[in-house]
Amino acid sequence: MPLPPALVKKAREFRGNPAPARAAATVVLLDPDTLDVYVLRRASTMVFGGMHAFPGGRVDPGDSPETVRRDWADRLGVPDERARAVVGAAARELFEEAGVLLAGPLDEPDRTVGDVSSPGWEADRAAVAARELSMTDLLARRGLRLRDDLLLPWSRWITPEFEPRRFDTWFFVALLPRAQTARDVSGEAEGTTWISPAAADGLAMLPPTRVTLDELSPYRRIEDVVAASGQRNAAVPILPRVELTGDGGAVVRI
């Protein structure tokens, strides 16, 4: 697939050694009824500004949750502590950027928490985003536990070597909890929308986002998405290869 002009310029000017790739996580949030996907249009002042993306960001030192699943190291291809940090980052970023909390009561393991848009919840979300409150402390205070079993590992992408800021990013699929609503609360987006994966061709996206939507397009039932996630390999990273073309452009080989 072709690269946007700004990335073509970076690829052609790249010299030297690639920057290290920092661990990150992103969440493909699905409407359980329509299988539409929640996307944000990144603010023009940000890296990759103007591009549509899923909620997500880098792993922080405070991302060290207690998890329900015990096989994250195998599923993500990294040691247990790092794997749990990636899972914690996915849940935290979803809460920070979309106001969606994957958590449930300690004494009711099959339930998810209800509406989290009240002023009290919003104050907690803002505190988590400002790093004044960790997700672990928030959940403990409210008698909740992380429902990491609702995060379905899908893929793992590493930013091409020409980028000055590189990420080793795990992509997860998650369903919007029935009693919750995704909201534009990130402060990093110029807008948000729900869109069918098959109808997203006209939106500006980076290759990992585009490929993920293409992979989800064939599915019509949520049960099929869940089953497909069990066959996915999110441990082996995809490293896109950039080829410069004779006409002054560049293409990405997946």
Q: Which key features would you list for this structure?
A:
27% helix; 4-stranded mixed beta sheet; globular; 254 residues; 7 helices; alpha+beta; 3-stranded antiparallel beta sheet
What order do the helices and strands come in, and which of them pair?
Blueprint (H helix, E strand, L loop, with lengths): L4 H9 L7 E10 L6 E6 L9 E2 L2 E3 L13 H5 L3 H19 L4 E3 L13 H11 L5 H7 L2 E3 L5 E7 L7 E10 L13 E7 L11 H10 L5 H8 L11 E4 L5 E4 L1
Parallel strand pairs: 1-8
Antiparallel strand pairs: 1-4, 2-3, 2-9, 5-6, 7-8, 10-11
Helix pairs in contact: 3-4
Terminal Cα span: 8 Å
Low-confidence regions: none
Describe the sheet with the most strands.
4 strands, mixed
Q: Overall 3D geometry?
A: globular
Instruction: Find the count of extended strands (DSSP E, 2+ residues).
Output: 11
Mean pLDDT, rounded to whole units?
Answer: 90
- How many helices? 7
The strands making up the biggest β-sheet line up spatially as 4-1-8-7
Share of β-strand residues: 15-25%
Order of helices and strands: HEEEEHHEHHEEEEHHEE
**Which class best fits the helix and strand makeup?**
alpha+beta
Rounded to an integer, what's the Rg over CA atoms? 18 Å
Percent range of helical residues: 25-40%
